[in-house]
Amino acid sequence: MPGTSTQEHLRGQGANQELWFQFYNFDLYYLDQMVVLAKENVNIDLYYLDQMVVLAKENVNIDLYYLDQMVVLAKENVNIDLYYLDQMVVLAKENVNIDLYYLDQMVVLAKENCFMNSVIQCLSNTKPLLEYLLSEKHLSDINTSVSSMKGALIKAFSQVIQELWKVEHDGVVNTTALKSQIQRFAPRFMGYNQQDAQEFLRYLLEGLHEDVNRIPCKPKPILTDKAEESWKRYLRMDDSKIVDLFVGQLKSTLRCSSCGHCSITFDPFWDLSLPIPSRTGQLRLQQCLDHFTKEEVLDGDEKPTCSKCQVRRKCIKSFTIQKFPKILVLHIKRFSPLERFRGKLSVIVDFPLSGLDLNAYASNKGSSCCYNLYGVANHSGTTYSGHYTASCKHPYTGDWHEYNDSRVSSISSRSVVSSEAYLLFYELS
What biological processes does GO assign it (predicted)? Predict the structure, then answer.
């Protein structure tokens, strides 16, 4: 409080004076400790917040200065458990003297990293990536000549993964250092705005790959249309354990409707963005894949130039999968610029937990392309306001868990499929 000491401010609280003095030393001591711990980037123990809830239930006024400090701490990515914040909001609405403005700010700030948390949990349960990081093999792969981050991003990410998988670990893992490195690599994630989980995943994987790219310097590209040569050309520039796991190859065929000539190109992909073909009813994942790979007529302003006719012609475009990645990430497009003012597409897309056979979408029929699900990043809420969680299958026990920021709970495999599924993580069987 400007112009007054905390003690003087507390003395003016009227009927609550006795309770404040009863709890005063205990309360302020722990709040002070929270400030100190946060400045040292140590996670705030939930016990202290629990004590604040106890004090609030006794109708003790919690000084706004300390709530203000908690807002500052939340901005610094200190992990404040939403359960306790929610409880404080409930208490405030019951006329306990806690300023709602500060609580609202705290809840908003605490939720703003959920897009990152859900992706990290899915990657943490990616068995080959987990074993690569836990074995610390990535340290010998760091490429300081090509990487703009000089290994800082994968080191920070590895630290988070190792903390999550510590046998004796039983608390909240601090992701402050990781977010700082991600913001260095991709400044678009600066600030405290909610972000898209799929975009975050793409930037994170590209940043991790860059840190451990096996190519010391990128050669000049050699033009070719052949699938194998196209893939080798890609690996001559981008080759890492991250690429080994997550990158596949798409075959794009453009057929001229006049002369029948086919122009074929091959492109690497980190994930596949699948459109939802219907706004109503329940769909199957295969319907989304059918829609993604179906033939598209390019006519009018979209007509490309036929390489044989040498003029713009009506063409038929189609996609098939040339190379299947070990880890396949499917992005269900629940948000679209065209749908922005019509809201999020919340239809249920039914997807298999095991035995996802993609041979029908392969360029070469008979390819080994059967996948099992192990992770889902979920989005609840609307286009403008929402929350991310993750559902992940333990890579060793096979048990499913839900990760909601700092809270973890066991779930049944039957509850994994929902209308909130946004990113699907599959492993090649």
Answer: protein deubiquitination
pTM of the model as a whole = 0.71
Q: Which two tokens stand for residue 250?
A: 């798409």
Q: Give the CATH number for residue 118.
A: 3.90.70.10
Residue ranges of alpha helices (H) inside 165-259 are: 176-185, 197-211, 227-237, 241-246
Enumerate the β-bridge partners of residue 331: 273, 423
CB 334 within 8 A of CB 423: no
Does 148 lie in the same domain as 121?
yes
How many domains does the structure of the chain reveal?
2
C-alpha pair distances (Å), 57 with each of 15, 19, 62, 95, 343 = 15, 11, 11, 10, 39
The pairing of beta strand 327-332 with beta strand 407-411: unpaired
Asked if residue 15 and residue 130 are part of one domain, the reply reads no
Cα separation, 120 vs 360, whole angstroms: 31
Same domain for 258 and 378, yes or no, is: yes
Structure tokens at 155: 């080191």
Does residue 365 lie within any of the structural domains?
yes
Query: How does pLDDT run along the chain (429 residues), one tens digit per residue?
Result: 334 333 333 233 333 333 323 333 334 444 445 444 444 444 444 444 445 555 555 545 555 455 555 555 554 444 444 444 555 555 555 545 554 444 444 444 444 588 899 999 999 999 999 999 999 999 999 988 777 788 999 999 999 999 888 866 556 777 888 988 999 998 888 766 668 899 999 999 999 999 999 887 765 544 445 777 787 787 878 889 999 999 999 999 999 988 988 888 899 999 999 999 988 788 999 999 999 999 999 998 889 988 888 899 999 999 999 999 999 999 999 986 554 445 688 899 999 999 999 999 999 887 779 999 999 999 988 777 778 999 999 999 999 999 988 788 999 999 999 999 999 999 999
Last residue within a domain, chosen from 62, 93, 111: 111
- Are residues 94 and 231 located together in one domain of the fold? no
Active site residues: 114, 387
Residue 1 lies in a domain: no
- Mark whether 91 and 149 lie in a shared domain: no
Range of the domain at 396: 114-428
